[in-house]
Amino acid sequence: MWELAGKVLVAAVAARSSWVVGKGLYTSYLGSWFGRSVKVKQLGRWAVITGATDGIGKAYAFEMARNNLNVVLISRSEERLRNVADEIASKYNVKAKTIQADFTERNIYNRIEDEISNLEIGVLVNNVGMTYDYPKEFTEVSEKLILDLFHCNILSVTMMTKIVLEKMQKRNKGLIVTLSSMGCLVPMPYLTLYGALKAYIVFFTKSLANENRSNNVIIQCHVPALVATKFSGFTKPNILVPTPMESVQSSMRTADIPVLIYRTMWFHVASQKTEVTLYLATVANFLNKWISESIMNTFANSFFGSFRSKAIARNKKMAKRETRVQQE
Ligand SMILES: NC(=O)c1ccc[n+]([C@@H]2O[C@H](COP(=O)([O-])OP(=O)(O)OC[C@H]3O[C@@H](n4cnc5c(N)ncnc54)[C@H](OP(=O)(O)O)[C@@H]3O)[C@@H](O)[C@H]2O)c1
């Protein structure tokens, strides 16, 4: 009796493990080898990218241009927009249009809509996002910062999607990418609003993807862990932290299959590197699925708590230094 139960358990774990590993391999590698990733060039002539002058947004802009799409870049700094647009236009021989806009403001959407209304938009990348200057308790977050976070992180995604989706539906093709974060999966104490708003993006994307099942508009959420950008504070990539382009290309490779594209730790790097990391990738994916929530909670509290303590100590040191300079 016990022997049989043991055998059933082992078989169930083996079957589940094979399913998870097989699915991970298919999603990240085999799917694209079988031509299952999105061919963005076939979706329209233009790609619109928010937060496009740096980090992940800039990598998306280059990736779209590499696929022969013209690009619309939206960010705050006119000068950086011009520089990135020139770089893209000269490297890929495509058109690069720029729109200067600050997504913490809510009255920008009529102007953006006017500026892109005549373009055949195949791809929208809702990339722009912001967080606190350092981890804070919720009660320390100012009203202005709360509104900025809501506007920049979720109103932007909602309104930009509203602007382009109807036309995509009429043309019966298109791709809308949203950017969430692993922070939507585990609690983010001291970055509470950031994690909660990223969870909105996942839920928004999942629901909208279902709503659009009957047409050919693909709606997907890219869910990275750490990526080497100014935003994350990791200036150099390493085995756990990919470059923005690695993260974007591995996400694009899985494009037409899942609604949520998780890219964490070795997994994203694995899709570009050696057989060894391929193996690690499948193990990492397996652990991701099986890790217990209480372990994740303990980890989150200690990780973000120490991140906050360090930031507070650094801020105190800087304030002291400033006072000393003023007194001298
Ligand atoms: N990096 C990571 O580890 C990581 C992990 C998970 C998720 N993400 C998500 O990925 C997205 C991009 O992050 P990133 O790391 O690439 O950031 P980044 O390197 O700091 O780049 C941010 C881009 O957005 C623009 N931007 C910032 N605030 C803006 C505003 N209020 N209005 C208009 N444009 C604005 C910036 O240009 P200007 O300053 O010129 O406006 C820049 O082009 C975010 O949604 C973030 O939450 C990042």
Automatic annotation (TrEMBL):
InterPro entries with a match to the protein in the record: NAD(P)-bd_dom_sf (IPR036291), SDR_fam (IPR002347), VLCFA-Steroid_DH (IPR051019)
GO cellular component: endoplasmic reticulum
MF GO annotations: oxidoreductase activity
Membrane spanning residue stretches: 175-197
Keywords noted in UniProt: Membrane, NADP, Oxidoreductase, Transmembrane, Transmembrane helix
Domain of life (superkingdom): Eukaryota
Pfam families given in the database record: adh_short (PF00106)
Family of this protein: Belongs to the short-chain dehydrogenases/reductases (SDR) family.
Protein name: Very-long-chain 3-oxoacyl-CoA reductase
